[in-house]
Amino acid sequence: METLSASSKFNQTLTYLHLHYNGIGADGMEALSESLKANKSLTILNLADNKIGNEGMETLSASSKFNQTLTYLHLSYHGIGDEGMKSFGKALKVNQGLTILVLSSNEIGAEGVESLSESLKVN
User: Which of 4, 47, 54, 74 could bridge to 102 as Cys pair (CB 3.0-4.6 Å)?
Assistant: First the structure.
């Protein structure tokens, strides 16, 4: 994941990255998030059916504050819960680029939904 992240950091032509079911966990998300901070061309990122969990979601949230080109983010089947959604909710208050967010089949409860709802009022 680190090699892919390093190369996509400087790639300015890739617009769609599909990494469905690749065993990406929190460590892999940390490497990928570093490239997302600098990348200015990626618009679609499909990470469905990996296991970043809350820790990986917090890392992704930090990079989402910097990346304004990503418009579609697919995060189904990640084990994301309320804590992960709370951090992502804060990022969405700053991020104005994301228009499609897929979060099906996670472990998001009432607190996570509330955080997401609050961020969408601002976004």
Answer: 74
Q: Are 20 and 48 in contact (CB under 8 A)?
A: yes
b/e string for 9-42 if b means 16 or more Cβ within 10 A? eebeeeeebebeeeebbbebbbbbbbbbeebeeb
CA atoms within 13 A on the CB side of 15: 1
d(CA 72, CA 26): 20
Q: Is residue 100 within a helix (H) or strand (E), and if so which, with residue range? A: strand 100-102
pTM: 0.92
- Domain ranges in the chain are 2-122
Protein fold of 2-122: 3.80.10
pLDDT, one tens digit per residue, over 80-93 is 999 999 999 999 99
Per-residue pLDDT band at 30 (split at 50, 70, 90): very high
At residue 16, what are phi and psi to the nearest 5 degrees? Answer: -135, 125
What amino acid occupies position 47? L
